[in-house]
Predict the structure.
Amino acid sequence: MEQSPTPIPQVTRAATAFAALGSEARLSILHRLVRAGPSGLPIGALGEEVGITGSVLTHHVKHLVSAGLVEQRRDGRRILCSVVISEVEALSDFLISECCADLGAAPHPRDTADG
């Protein structure tokens, strides 16, 4: 079975996102923002909840923003951070999309009653 190569931009985006998530602190930040949903959290509250504040929090959020996983917006005097759900879904799809492809026509394990 001939495998079609994954387009380089998709691989590059995934690698950038995974690199950004290569820190427990950044993974905790993203996880908390996923739980918060599309409205996000003020950066101060986010920092308190994950136990990271000040310039260290800013540094980690900057990495997540650069990877396209988090966005920031101003709301009056507050800075709100929120997850970019479409990018997190794309990252998940990148991993799952070819699951079991080498097994031929076998269904994806999550699509079976036992999976």
Summary: The first helix runs from residue 8 to 20. The first strand starts at residue 41 and ends at 42.
